[in-house]
Amino acid sequence: MPFRRPRFVHGKILRNTGSGIxxxxxxxxxxxxxxxxxQFAMVSGWPGNDPLLPRPLAIFRSGGTRGKGxxxxxxxVVGRGTALLSGLHGGDxxxxxxxxxxxxxxxxxxxxxxxxxxxxxxSTVFPAAAALDAQRSDFExxxxxxxxxxxxxxxxxxxGAIPGRVHLCTDDGTAxxxxxxxxxxRERLDRWKPSGKGRLAILACGPREMLKTVAEAALPLDVRxxxxxxxxxxxxxxxxxxxxxxxxxxxKAVYRRVCKEGPVFDAREVVW
Amino acid sequence: MTSxxxxxLTVRVGTVLLxxxxxxxxxxxxxxxxxxxxxxISRLGAVIVKxxxxxxxxxxxxxxxxxxxxxxxxxxxxxxxxVDRFVTEVAPRLADAGAVCAANIYGRTVEEYEAVAxxxxxxxxxxxxxxxxxxxxxxxxxxxxxSTPEGLSGLTRRVRAATGKPLWVKLSPNVSDIGAIARxxxxxxxxxxxxxxxxxxxxxxxxxxxxxxxxxxxxxSGPAVKPVALRMVWEACKAVxxxxxxxxxxxSAEDALEFLLVGAAAVQVGTANFRNPNACVExxxxxxxxxxxxxxxRLDEYRGTLLL
Lengths: 272, 308
Prior knowledge:
The complex is a heterodimer of chains A (about 270) and B (about 300). Chain A is of the alpha/beta class and about 270 residues long. Chain A contains 4 helices and 16 strands. Chain A has helices spanning about 80-85, 120-135, 180-190, 210-220; strands spanning about 5-20, 20-30, 40-45, 55-60, 60-65, 70-75, 95-100, 110-120, 140-145, 165-170, 175-180, 200-205, 225-230, 245-250, 250-255, 265. Chain B has helices spanning about 85-95, 110-120, 145, 150-160, 180-185, 225-240, 255-260, 270-275, 280-295, 300, and strands spanning about 10-15, 15-20, 20-25, 45-50, 65-70, 70-75, 100-105, 125-130, 165-170, 190-195, 200, 205, 210, 215-220, 245, 265-270. In chain B, the strands form 4 sheets. In chain B, strands 3-4-7-8-9-10-15-16 form an 8-stranded parallel beta barrel, surrounded by 7 helices. Chain B is globular, with a radius of gyration of 18 Å. Chain B starts with 10 loop residues before the first strand and ends in a 6-residue tail after the last helix.
């Protein structure tokens, strides 16, 4: 049985290769893993105490068979931790705590799904797209980047880069829609009509400003929006209380842990 | 060939008997139950739960943690569910888990400390109360009481009178004479002292010109503080007769042994739990392996044997 409760495991890197500004890392772990899209792992692989803390990475894919699991991550170098990760090679050891957090929810009713990824945020929504693709659900993908080179490779896109289903957006117009992913989403929302396919749901991950704009555009149209938030975190499993974000619960603003109650929140609850 | 003998790791903190010297530190272990997916928490010497206040506390605004060289600063602001929810919802589950537990407490006033201590005195499963007289991140989070011998003595006396539970007093390192502070706690009736809490620190961004923590300053923990902690524990051990619980930057069994060597009765593991949820049990196993290798049958024979 694949494990789904959090475990601390020692893994071994199978490959860790750069593709444009992104790295894709595959790791062998002792057992196969079952995860919900949107869940993440705390990962560290450098010797010594500096940097001290592991880094949160969205789980991109998992596989393997009994006694021989694999897990994949896609990441971008943003600081010292991810720079150190990018320098690791096949065969290097890696410590992982996974799977962590509350992922995306897929209510049973029939819906159209739109997945929005800004920057490296695609690494969080692609697993959701893969799950929807596997169950032949109706989905579209919106991907935003500054420029063409910062979009994910086409063959990473679940179901392939099918025009009409996958909307590429670049700030400089070098690929796809000339403008932000939120501007493309607004245009698509203007054209969208509720149909026999049921209600629309949006799953989004990216910079906080982008997520806020997505929520502002879609929530008034009664579209259900789930956002995956980022935060600095020390533990990733709910004990340090360092990663909190403000959410509304029962009319009251409270601090909830991005690592435990999140990283995926109902956009209606987030205090932007 | 001699048959391998399992060394005796039991330690005594005053009247509290622990199966081993490794205690999870308050504020780094949630309410204990969060670790049950990783291991059986009854394997620990003891679990100390997150600092409890009379009423639920929302904590500080985000921007609560920042990583620093070989350490981290935190300014969580003592976010917690309050003593009532702990007693009714958490304590029974911790008892079911079979863990030896102590509760860390704090108040904004002496009266609040007393009220929390009284409420927890009704909980049979609690082995001790740890008095937080040293949180650096809340104005009235204890540091106001814990930074002078007089202030600490007054607070400890009042809480001592409010509870029959063993009372451990957690000390701040942000003082000039740790020995005098530890003696003040001892004379006021503490059954043990725990040290060190975090060291007040700060981090700023030169480009945005803003502090990295919403609280501006925070508490430094992790390997970066270990030498300071070790020196202070050593000094406190010389200053008092009550047990000293050593804490500060312990990441490994070797780190824990250093604190035991300078005289600590037990140790607490804090920040290490964040990067390895199994840190505490790995440290227990490491201490046992060390004693086997060194052919020491009882941890007590090793404790406090620093050669000078």
